[in-house]
Amino acid sequence: MRKQQWIYEIFAYLLALLFLFTAASKLFDLRHFVREINNQPFDDRFTPALVYGLPAIELIAVALLVWPKMRLKGFYLSAVLMFVFTVYVALVTFHFYNRVPCACATAFKHLSWPEHLAMNVVFLTLSITGIILHHKEHHIKIKQPYPIRAMV
Fold first, then answer.
1. Which of 64, 100, 122, 148 is most buried (most C-beta within 10 Å)?
2. In a domain, 54, yes or no
3. Any transmembrane segments, and where (predicted)?
């Protein structure tokens, strides 16, 4: 296995572990998660969609990332999720909202908002890099499907 393929695999499993951990932490303490979602600067009407939708989408991302034939879709879903999470955390970090909500709804409650932002940027970068590596590998395979042999 080539180095790029190893990196691709490692990034997929790191993202899958992240989403599995965050989804599980939400689902195992659902009451706490509901309270913390209600503490965020969103209209409470969005609570049911967020409480059930976020863990479900995160678990879908896990399945896509660990299933080799669906991995590219998993990287795309991861990139979208991480982009949305990163924008939200950036808005909180830079005091866009009137109040800064507690970060206790997250699986990483020990992180400050700036640390959370940095972590999100790292995982967003892993997602985008996974997409790039997939396309690079796919392009190479299409371009040269068989080894070229010199004719003697």
1. 64
2. yes
3. 49-67, 74-97, 117-134
Kindly state whether residue 150 falls inside one of the protein's structural domains: no
Does any domain span residue 148?
no
Query: Which domain does 40 fall in, by range?
Result: 3-143
* Domain count within the chain: 1
Domain for residue 111, yes or no? yes
Please give the backbone phi and psi of residue 106, each rounded to the nearest 5 degrees, phi first: -90, 160
The whole-angstrom separation of Cα 20 and Cα 13 is 10
Question: For the segment 23-76, what is each residue's pLDDT rounded down to a tens digit?
Answer: 999 999 999 888 888 888 888 898 899 999 999 999 999 999 999 999 999 999
Nearest to 18 by CA among 101, 122, 129: 122
Give the total residue count for the chain. 152
